[in-house]
Amino acid sequence: MFRLREVLGYPHAGNDVFYAAGTCGDRPCTAFIKVARQAGADLDNEAAVLRTIPYPHKPRMLEYVPGLCLVTEECPGERLSVILREAGRTEALDYMESYGAALAQLHGIDLPWPDVKRRRFFDLPPADVLAKRRLEPFAEFLASHPPEGESRCFIHGDFHYANILWRNGRVSAVLDYELSGWGVQEFDLAWAVVLRPGQEFLKTTKELERFLGGYRAVRGFSYPAFRYYYILAALWFCGMGDDAYRRDLRNLLGELAGQ
Q1: How far apart are CA 140 and CA 21, in angstroms?
Q2: Which of 12, 158, 174, 212 has its CA 20 to 30 A from that of 105?
Q3: Alpha-carbon distance 78 to 166, whole Å?
C-alpha cells in the first residue's frame, strides 16, 4: 500500500495526475497517482493490464482503488523529446530500433482480452474537414489501397513518444494502458510513429524505416496495412500545430502515398 507524504507536482495528462512522494511498505518511493477525469478514462482496464501482462517495461502498480485512483511507482528514464533536445538529427536514428522492438514485444503477448474501445481515429475525418485542409487526394489513396494483410493482437492503444521512457539508449518504461486490448496490430504500429506537433524526431522516412526494422526483427507485420493506418491517423493531425509541422507531416504523407 502506498502512503502519501507530499504532492510534488501535477504532470500534464488527460486525467488528473499527481506526482507524489511517500512510502510503500517500509521504503520511501515516488509515484504517480492517476484520478479519472475524462469520460473515456478506463482505470479498471489499466489496472487489470498491469496486473496481468508479462511485459518487462510496464510500471509497477502500487495500489488501485476502484472508482477512485491508480498509483504506480515512478519508473527510471526520460522522454525521448527531452533526451534529444540538444542532440542532432542523426542521434534520433539510434533510438528507433529499440523503439520498434519494444512495441513488437508487447504485440507478441499471447493474451486474450476484450476488444479495444472504438475511437474516432479508426475512421476518416469528416468530408468537410478533408476538403478544408485539401486532403482529398490522401483519402482517395486510402480508398484504393485498403489495409491488406492487417492482423489483430493485444495492443497498447496509445503507444507514442509521450508514454515511453528511455534510459541508456533503451526503452525503460511504457506507460498508460487505459486503451489497451484486442485490436489491429498495424494501427497500433502506425499510431506509435505518426508525427505529432512539437515532435523533433520521426520526421523522415529514414527514421520510420529504422523503427520498422527494429519491429520486424521481433515480429512480422503488413506494410500496406501500416501505410494505410499511418496515413489515416495523420489526416487527423493535419490541422494541428504550426505551419512547419503541417508541412513536415504532408511531406511524409506524400512520400508514403507516392504523391
Answers
A1: 52
A2: 12
A3: 5
Is the CB of residue 24 less than 8 Å from the CB of residue 1?
yes
C-alpha cell at 167: 534510459
Quickly count: other Cβ atoms within 10 Å of residue 51's Cβ.
10
- Residue 48 CB partners (closer than 8 Å, separation 6+): none
Nearest to residue 20, comparing CAs of 72, 77, 92? 72
Please spell the DSSP secondary structure of 123-149, one letter per residue. Answer: SPPPHHHHHHTT-HHHHHHHHHS--TT
210, containing H or E segment: helix 205-216
Residue 38 has pLDDT above 70, yes or no: no
In this model, does residue 115 exceed pLDDT 70? yes
Q: Which residue has the cell 489515416?
A: 232
pLDDT value at position 90?
Answer: 66
Percent of the chain with pLDDT over 90: 78
Question: Among 40, 35, 32, which Cα is nearest to 2's?
Answer: 32
Over its C-alpha atoms, the chain yields an Rg (Å, rounded) of 19
Residue 211: exposure state from Cβ atoms within 10 A (0-12, 13-18, ≥19): buried
Predicted TM-score (pTM) of the model is: 0.93
Mean predicted lDDT score pLDDT of the chain = 92
Extract the runs of DSSP E, i.e. beta strands, from 25-176: 27-35, 61-65, 69-73, 152-155, 164-167, 170-174
Give the separation between CA 258 and CA 79, rounded to whole angstroms. Answer: 32
